[in-house]
Amino acid sequence: MFETIVCADIGSETTRLASGRGFAEEPTRVALDPAERMRVLAVGEPASRLLGAAEVYPVRGGVAELKLTALMLRRMVLRFLKRRSLYGVQVLAAAPGEGTPAANAALREACAEAGFRAVGLADSALAGALGAGLDPHSERAFMVADIGRETLKTAVFANGGVIRGTFSRAGSVHFDRLIRARLAEGGFVTTAKTAESIKKNLDLPVIRASGREAMGGPTCCREIKPTLLREALRPHVDVIVRELTEAISALPPDAAADLMTGGITLIGGGSLLYGLDEELELRLNVPVRVCPGARQAAALGLMKLAASPSLAKAAML
User: What CATH architecture applies to the domain 136-171+233-293?
Assistant: First the structure.
């Protein structure tokens, strides 16, 4: 029987879907009726645009809430495939190899609850490496660091396997909080969405942002110089440096030496923070690069796993 395989990278901020039919990404959001919180009004992109609804994030800190994640994923995939049922559809979802068994079990159960014919979980680090165009079978060690909204995952590959992996909650959402805190010190209050937008535009000479004056003042628009914010972000850059330093320090000497050549490849939306790669390279003293298409790397890597049974077997959790 013909089977359709959908690859899903379900992040705290964005869910990315890939199949032979193409690629799609939507916010990981569910909109609930404020008067009847058990009633789902929309999921994904429509949910983020629905005014007056109670917006819920079904995945937090790498952990999926069963019912809402299942319903969200089902509706997203049906919309993506332009189908009315998931009959004959399999899903291959990305999960951190260093994540807790409970978190991975919750993701597997949510996918099964969504109604897929079969569910597979693959190591997100290996998927990310493949999506970044790296060879996990390289004799020389290299590191992949996946900076998501709420999590930071690292994996060091050598000779076809992961020799060291880490998982922490040092995601890029902390940059958003630092931006809001610094602006609040200047009497300017912004939303989380505005802070996210500011974070993505730190390469501009001036950023225009909407908000309101502190202490209940009127709404207004301010021009913000990114140079004022970059220093405010340093505390969380320090956290990321510390996490990566600890991961490198735990490596065997030969593998640590290989990083001088293989370096660190950054994937995930958080890796796109302006100047982050240069700062990490300077402070870690190893080559650091941002993967082209960093946000989509894991989903595209899942597609490569789905097309290669031998690779998929080694990556399954």
Answer: 2-Layer Sandwich (3.30)
Closest CA to 299 of 10, 28, 4: 10
**Cα–Cα distance, 96 to 146 (Å, whole number):** 10
The string of pLDDT tens digits covering residues 181-209 is 999 888 889 988 888 889 988 988 899 98
Distance of alpha carbon 107 from alpha carbon 94, whole angstroms: 9
| In this structure, CATH architecture of domain 4-126+297-315 | 2-Layer Sandwich (3.30)
Q: Is 52 exposed, middle or buried (0-12, 13-18, 19+ CB in 10 A)?
A: exposed
Query: What span, in angstroms and rounded, lies between the C-alpha atoms of 317 and 95?
Result: 8
SS3 state of residue 265: strand
Query: Could you name the CATH architecture of 173-230?
Result: Alpha-Beta Complex (3.90)
Q: Where in the chain is the domain with CATH 3.30.420.40?
A: 4-126+297-315, 136-171+233-293
